[in-house]
Structure prediction request, 303 residues.
Amino acid sequence: MLDDTDRRLLRHYQHDAALPVAELAERAGVTPATCARRLDRMKSAGVIRANRAVIDWRALGYEVEVSLRVTLEKSHPRAFDEFLAAAREVPEVVEIQTFLGRVDLRLSVIARDMAHYQEIYRSAILSLPHIADIEALMHVARIKSDEILPL
Amino acid sequence: MIELDTTDRRLLRELVRDATQSASTLGRKLGLSQPATWRRIRRLHDSGVIKGQRLDLDHDRLGFGVTVFLGVKLATKGRVSIDDFERAVSAIPEVQTVEHILGLYDYRLRVVARDISDFERVLRRRIMMLPGVGDVEANVMLSEERRPGPIG
Prediction:
């Protein structure tokens, strides 16, 4: 289980995941050796799954982001599995979530511009299996995106 | 906007998987020298392709068993300042992301909670108290996949 020191380390590490161990240790008020040992332990326990680089798709020319809310034809027993397997094959799909609620799934799709989006939508999205309904929400701006857990 | 070659794309995929790898480790995987790898990493950062690093934590093990996506519509567009809403919603610790969207809703929020009753507390005491908040739709997340995107 995690103690207060682990939580303090994670709090600082979440806010700046690029911090070197020595600096993280200083901010959390522990020695670098303690810091490294605790991080290793949390990694091997699976609490810290990874430390990932975050891509800014705009810098690569992907200006459009659309959130597609999908409802499936649930009469087919393998509707979810088949839809998910096919959605994974579309390179422009960057996130897939499944839900309990009014919609079954959400796909986050990126495109270079509206014409490119239209092409992806027609050729790749509409041909995904078992779709009953799709709603598109156009992404305008990201106000908060740090994904920090309130530990 | 910068063009990436095959090696850049492989490097980017590696860094998305684990950003803590050293330039020499990455160079060995890609068949590059350590300085050449370092220059490519530098370029990905300088051009803004890599905008930062994110810690991927196991929410369940940290006691956050519930993630909910909320669609929020503002009730009094024009009268309430959008800035006020955005400032207030961003200040709620349980709100992980806030996105301004066009369509059925004005904002999409990603909210974490310990369990469903904790989520109810966040919804009633925090979200519903926000200035200008109107209709709210909640979808409880069951699973999530982040895909590599078009650099595969």
Remarks:
- Chain B touches chain A through 62 residues (CB under 8 Å).
- The longest strand of chain B covers residues 133-146.
- Chain B has a mean pLDDT of 94.
